[in-house]
Amino acid sequence: MSETAKNIDLPPSGEDTEVQDASSREVSQGLSLRTLQTPGAIPGYQIEQCLGEGSYGSVWLAREVRTGKKVAIKFYARGRGVDWSLLSREVEKLAVLYTSRNIVRLIDVAWDHDPPYFVMEYLENGSLAQKLEQGSLPVEDAVRITRAMAQALVHAHGSGVLHCDLKPANVLFDASGDARLCDFGQSRLSTERTPSLGTLFYMAPEQAVLDGIPDARWDVYALGALLYQMLTGTAPRRNVGSEQTLQRATTTEERLAAYRRLLEESPRPVSHRSVSGVDQRLAEIVDSCLERDPQLRLANAQIVLDLLDQRDRAKSRRPLLILALLGPLLFLAAMFWIAESAVPRVVQSAEDNLASRALAGDSTSARILALSIHQEIVTRTEELESEARSSHVQKIIAGSKDLNAEQLRDLCRGTAGPPELADSYRKLNQAKEGDGDRHPDRSWFLTDVEGRQIFRNPVSEDLKESTIGKFFNRRDYFHGKGKDIVDPIPKGSISPRKTPGVSAAYTSEATGQYAIAIAVPVWNEEKTEVIGVLGRSLHLPDLLDRWEKPLHDDATGADQRFLALAQIDSEDDSLFLLDHNWMNPANMKSHMERGSKSKEPRIRISTEQSQHLLQERSTATYIDPIAKLDPRFDGEWLAASYPVEDSKWIAIVQERRDIALKPMEDLRHLFYRSGYFAITIFSVMLGVFWVLLRRASE
C-alpha cells in the first residue's frame, strides 16, 4: 500500500486520477514516450479519432459499422498488471450499473485484445469540466446536474458500488443535455477494504490516506464539492495559495498530509452563499456535504436527493405561503382603514411625513424644486414682459433722454420731475412693490437702448454709489451673450438683447452670495426695434427660500436635509455651488476674506460626484464640499438632482444617510401601535387561516 498513488497531481480539467504502483508507473512512463498511434482494427468498429490519452491508455471515438452509431472505446496500454485489474474492475462496475439512466452504459468488452479495451456510449456534448472552464453555472442547472449525479450514486451505492472519484471531468452530457456519470476506474465495492484515492479538492479528508476504507460518504463529499464548484466556478478551498502548498510536497504521503491540513485549517467555504439564486436550503445542502467530520456529513446520496426534493417542494409551496402571508396582512390593512380611531391618526401622520419629506423622496423633491425654480423664473419673466409692454415704460424711455442722473434719481424717488413722467415712474415703482407673498426682488432697473440706467428701485441714498445714469451695456443682462464683458464698451457699440433671459450668476459685493438678473427687451410701439431693457435682480437664496422651510421638520433640522443649487462650469462640465444651507452672507464674506483672491470664489463639487449628479441624477455616497469649510456637513449624504429647464443650473436635495428613513420608521411604529388591538382580536383567526393554507400546500 505504501506505493499506491505515489504521486498525486492537482486536478486539472479532464486529468485521470493517478493510483499506480511502482511497476505500473514504469509501464506508464514507457507508454508516455510513445507517439500516439491508432489502435489495431476492431471487428465491427471504425476508429475515427482520439478523444484523450491518460496514464493507462487512451479513449477513441469510433463508429459502429452496421448502425453508424458513434461509440467511445477505452484502450488499456497493457493487458497485464494493474492495467488489467483496472480494466476488469471498471468493466465489472459498468456491467453492474448497466440499467442506470444516469451512468454511461457499457456496450462491449474485449479481454483478449491487444491492447484490451471496452466499448461504451459516446456522449457528444462534452464534460462538466469543459463547461466550468467558462465559469460558474446557473443555479438551477447546477441543481439539475447535482440531482442526476445523486441519482447515479444512489443507483451505484444500491448496487454495492462506490465511485470514489467524482469530479467534473467524470460528468458527461448526452445529446439531450442530461448529465451522466462515467469513469469507474477508481470505484470500489462496498464490501471491499482496498483504499482508493480520488482527486484533490474533491476528496473527503478521511479518503486522503493510504489505508482508508471506502465509504459512501466519500462520494457525498465529492458531490458537495461538485455542486459548490458549479455555483461558484471553483472547487472548495482551491486557490493559488492552496495549490502552491500542495505542489511543494514531493511524495504522495506529504501531499496527502498537506491536503488534510488544508481541509482542517481552512475556514468553511461560504462563497456559494453569496451567489444570486442560492437559497438557504441549497446552501445548507452544500455545507452538509462538505462537513470535514464524516459523522456530521450526510450519510449517503439518497439523503442529498431527498433534501433536493424537499427544496423543490418548498419552492412550489412558496406562492401559497406568500398568499398565506399577504392575505392576512391585506385583511389587517383593511381593518385599519375601517377603524375610526386609527384612520385619522394614520392619515394625518402620513400627510405630515409626506409634506415634511417633500413628497416622500429626494428625487421627487429635486424635480419639484427644479420645476418650481423654472416656473418662478418664467413667472417673473412674464411679469417683466407685461410691464415692458406698458405705455408708462415707453414714456420713461422716451422722456429720459435729456435728463441727467440727479433728475433721474429724483424721478425714481418720486420727489420731483415732470408730472406725466413722474406718474410713469410711480407706476413702475408700484409694479416693483407688487411681489405679494413671494420673496421680493433685490431691485428693478430699466436701461435705454445704449445701456444707460434710467430707473432703479431701490435708489441708493449715496449719490456716489448710485447706479442711475451710468452705462451697463457690458453686463450680460443687457446684451444676453452669456457673460459680462470685462473691458468698457462705448455706448451704442453693442445691441441690447432681443429675447427675455436670465443673466449669468454673479457674486453680490454686499452679501457675497450669488445673484442673477432677469431681463426682457422693451420694444417700440411698432414692435420693430428694441428701445431698452427692463430687468429685475434677486439673490439665488431668495429664489429657493420659499421651498426650503417645508423641506425639513423639527426631527431632521435645517442642517440635516436641505436644498442646494449648482451650476455647470462650461469649461470642464463640473459643478460649483450657487446656493447651500451654509452659504449665508456672514459665511460667504468670511470665505472671500479668508483665502480667495477671486471676486467670485467657487466652491466646487468633485468631478466624480458631479458626473453622478449630472448623469445618474443621484448618489448614495455624496460628500458635501462644504465639509472642508464646516465640520457640521462632514460625513456621507444622500443627494438627488434635477436640471432646471432653460439654464445650466442643477437643483439638489441632500440629506444625511443616518436619518433618511426616520419618518418611515416613525410611520411604521405608528402602525404597530394603532394595529395592536386589531392584531390581538384577529390573531387566532389568522393563525387558523395560516395552518389551513400550509396543509393545503403540502
Report on this structure.
The chain has 698 residues and is α+β, with helices and mostly antiparallel strands. The chain has 3 domains: 22-299, Transferase(Phosphotransferase) domain 1 (Transferase(Phosphotransferase), domain 1, Orthogonal Bundle), CATH 1.10.510; 365-539, Beta-Lactamase (2-Layer Sandwich); 545-658, no CATH class. It is built from 19 helices and 21 strands. The protein has helices at residues 22-32, 81-96, 128-132, 139-158, 216-232, 240-247, 252-265, 280-289, 301-338, 342-356, 362-388, 391-399, 405-413, 419-432, 476-479, 540-548, 585-594, 607-616, 662-697, and strands at 45-53, 57-64, 70-76, 106-110, 117-121, 161-162, 171-173, 179-181, 188-189, 443-448, 453-457, 501-502, 506-507, 514-523, 530-539, 561-568, 575-579, 604-605, 618-623, 636-643, 649-656. Strands 10, 11, 12, 13, 14 and 15 form a 6-stranded antiparallel β-sheet that branches. It is elongated, with a radius of gyration of 42 Å.
Task: Describe the structure concisely for a colleague.
With 698 residues, the protein is α+β, with helices and mostly antiparallel strands. The protein is built from 19 helices and 21 strands.
Descriptive labels:
21 strands; 6-stranded antiparallel β-sheet; 698 residues; elongated; disordered N terminus; alpha+beta; 19 helices; Beta-Lactamase; Transferase(Phosphotransferase), domain 1
The fraction of residues assigned to DSSP E strands is: 15-25%
CATH architecture descriptor of the largest domain: Orthogonal Bundle
Average pLDDT confidence is 80
How far is the N terminus from the C terminus?
Answer: 52 Å
CATH class of the largest domain: Mainly Alpha
The low-confidence parts are 1-7, 12-16, 18-35, 79-83, 350-356
Radius of gyration: 42 Å
CATH topology of the largest domain: Transferase(Phosphotransferase), domain 1
Q: Which geometry do the CA atoms define?
A: elongated
Q: Structural class of the helices, strands and pairings?
A: alpha+beta
Oligomer: single chain
Number of helices: 19
Give the domain tally: 3
The CATH H-level homologous superfamily of the largest domain: Transferase(Phosphotransferase) domain 1
Question: The biggest beta sheet, please?
Answer: 6 strands, antiparallel
Say how many strands there are.
21
Could you estimate the helical fraction of the residues in percent?
A: 40-55%
